[in-house]
């Protein structure tokens, strides 16, 4: 299978989904941000000077998912029916894990929306904490699973 966003001449194209049936689509993406113990404690204890880091990052991630088509040039504008963003604190590694779940009934999938939601949420954590720790590291960010569509279901499996 070749790239769907490149035509026979090598030009970028937006995929024509007009002929596709509307189906339920769902995607989940995850990512992490690692930070210093001091910074992690400030976030976990709600002591960040800029306010509720995870609350702001949650809203930012949801907004990012909703605006994916405006950020990624060849993405379709979708009517999302759900965007959820959850955080898990990992004190053993001083990391915050974000999980973004996106759903819609549409003609194309929501993987990019889930990935964008996670990434914007983690970037927001970075922005709100950079005064304390400029050495934060974001990643890996990846698709966990997707459901629906012609290509069927997908579940990320670790490979060694």
Describe the structure.
This protein is α+β, with helices and mostly antiparallel strands and 160 residues long. The protein has one domain: Alpha-Beta Plaits. It has 4 helices and 6 strands; from the N terminus they run βαααββαβββ. The model has no long low-confidence stretch (mean pLDDT 91).
Based on the model shown, name its key terms.
alpha+beta, Alpha-Beta Plaits, 6 strands, about 30% helix
| Global Rg | 17 Å
Name the poorly predicted regions.
none
Query: Structural class, from secondary structure content?
Result: alpha+beta
User: First CA to last CA: what distance?
Assistant: 24 Å
CATH homologous superfamily designation:
Molybdopterin cofactor biosynthesis C (MoaC) domain
What is the domain tally? 1
Shape: elongated
Q: Please give the number of β-strands.
A: 6
Brief rundown of the structure:
With 160 residues, this protein is α+β, with helices and mostly antiparallel strands. Helix content is 28%, strand content 28%.
What secondary-structure arrangement, pairings included, does this model have?
Elements: E1 23-34, H1 37-44, H2 53-66, H3 68-71, E2 80-90, E3 95-106, H4 111-129, E4 137-138, E5 142-147, E6 154-155
Antiparallel strand pairs: 1-3, 1-4, 1-5, 2-3, 5-6
Helix pairs in contact: 2-4
